[in-house]
Specification:
The protein is an alpha+beta fold. It contains two helices and six strands. The chain has a single domain (3-25, 33-86), classed as Folate-binding fold (2-Layer Sandwich). The chain starts with a strand and ends with a helix. This is Sarcosine oxidase subunit delta.
Length: 88
């Protein structure tokens, strides 16, 4: 069992969290998006080995945040409120 840190509630059991996707995977503008670009947005992922930035939601408080963690050893480096992470 892992402990994840919600920037709003503090350390909690991993079962209280839900993965939201890669940080930085921005939705394309729907006006002129090609089918290839839309498919890339929906299905293509980097899946890096090592350090990564991901969007997570704490299901208890409903807040979204960016978690920086290592996919090899599962060590969580930081958890940052989404608004703060967008401007960092």
């Amino acid at each position: 069992m892992q402990l994840f840190t919600c920037p709003f509630c503090g350390p909690r059991d991993e079962t209280e969290f839900h993965f939201g996707g890669e940080a930085g995977n921005l939705r394309p503008d729907g006006a002129d998006v090609t089918a290839d670009r839309w498919a890339s947005y929906l299905y293509m992922r980097d899946n890096p080995k090592g350090a990564t930035r991901e969007i997570w939601v704490h299901m208890n408080c409903g807040e979204f945040f960016v978690m920086e963690r290592d996919t090899v050893n599962h060590k969580v480096e930081t958890s940052i409120a989404l608004d703060s992470a967008e401007h960092a």
